[in-house]
Amino acid sequence: MENLISDLEDKMQKTIASLNNEFKKIRTGRANPSMLDDIKIDYYGSPTPINQAASISVEEGRTLTISPWDKSLIEDIEKAIMKSDLGLNPNTSGDLIRLTMPVLTEETRGDYIKQAKNEAENAKIAIRNIRRDANNHAKDSEKNNEISQDEMKRLEAEVQRVTDTFIESIENELKKKEADLSEI
Predict the structure, then answer these.
(1) How many other C-beta atoms are found inside a 10 Å radius of the C-beta of residue 52?
(2) How far is CA 115 from CA 20, 24, 78, 92, 177, in A?
(3) What does the buried/exposed string (b/e) look like for 30-47 if buried means 16 or more CB atoms within 10 Å of the residue's CB?
(4) What letter would DSSP give residue 103?
(5) Using an 8 Å Cβ cutoff, are 50 and 80 in contact?
């Protein structure tokens, strides 16, 4: 049954990683190269993340600069950024692309905070579903006389303890993201 707890923790850890990935997509007023992680361009026939075809750096806190290694990719990178849901307009000068993060208004901050809360709630639901599956597995094991009723109760208590830990972790990640979005 230790496998059950180990699998449970692995699945819940993946949920937290997925939440953090979703949080990266919610932009703040600061530039962060990870914002572009999910944007892909066609690079010699295969979809390639921008960060694997160009160097990306932060300039002056609110501006990202993208310097493609192959200068013929500039137009493709611009199109991919404009098609993305980031709402950014690339500004090209020579062989350098600049992305300036607009200052967030109170309204957009509120929208982004709502989006972050929604993502956190989805992660909590996923964690609870993982807990339910683990508890069902423990009950099935007890019905099949693989474990005793006492062992099942201990297992359920351990599943709940792990679940509480991960729910708390989601709350902490949400607080960090809200603080990040609230900064001016």
Answers:
(1) 10
(2) 13, 12, 26, 30, 11
(3) ebebebbeebbbebeeee
(4) P
(5) yes
- Is this structure's pTM higher than 0.85? no
Distance CA 95, CA 66 (A): 9
As a whole number, the mean pLDDT across the chain is 87
Q: Are 32 and 58 a contacting pair, CB within 8 Å?
A: yes
Q: Is the pLDDT of residue 1 over 70?
A: no
Question: Tokens in use for 152?
Answer: 């099942």
Given the structure tokens 């902490």, which residue do they identify? 172
Cα atoms in the Cβ-side hemisphere of radius 13 Å centred on 8: 28
User: Element (H or E) spanning 53, and its range?
Assistant: none
